[in-house]
What we know:
The protein is mainly alpha-helical. It contains 10 helices and 3 strands. The protein has a 3-stranded antiparallel β-sheet with strand order 1-2-3, covered by helices on one side. A hairpin with a 2-residue loop joins strand 1 and strand 2. The longest helix is centred in the first third of the chain and has 21 residues.
Amino acid sequence: MATRPMEVLLAWRTAGSVAGPEHVVSPRVAARILGSIPEGTRRAYTADWTRFSAWCASAGRTPLPCTPETLAEFISTMADQGYAPATLGRMMAAIRSIHRLGGQQPPEDTAARAVIKSYRNERAAAGISNAGRRAAALSMRQLRELVAACEIPTKPGGPPRRQMPVTRDRLLLVLGWAMMARRGELHALDLGDVTEVENGLEVMVRRSKTDQSAHGHLVAIPYGRDPLTCPVRLWRT
């Protein structure tokens, strides 16, 4: 339960742990339920549930189903350890989601939300920002350095990299930069998702963090002035 909580909870439901055959789902349905949750979210929720389960064991409390009081106590303990309010909100969401996946009623979260609100005020009074960290944008100079570094051997003193992976890596770097793509969006691209048009490229992003229903959207990519960082020329190569 501590390593892959969502999969285990769905396995319980598949095996008929919930009373009555009407509450049992097949492995195929269980897989599709899991497939509705982005992989990154599953990883984060797994870590959060592992932390919550360990805390419950040390505090003598029950993780599933847990009470609103247990949830509030856990969130307050994590606040004392210095976690950001946004992280506390994600932990709470993970615990409630895993309850739902396991066929359990999620704990009422009014008290836990009040804890987070009070914690935000404490941080603000202490001069600690509650704003999330924003990653700095990659400059064109840095992009050129990364593109040039694709030729560096993977091991010090090793043989030169083959041209095919060098070209592929350069395209991924430049295309991801031009699209402002999330890494999950870039990782999910297939060759058929990129089409060359008169003014550059059209890239089909089939699903993204802000498009959980997978409607998909097209991203237009123009030519670049520098051949080394032009996504269209690198795509052709």
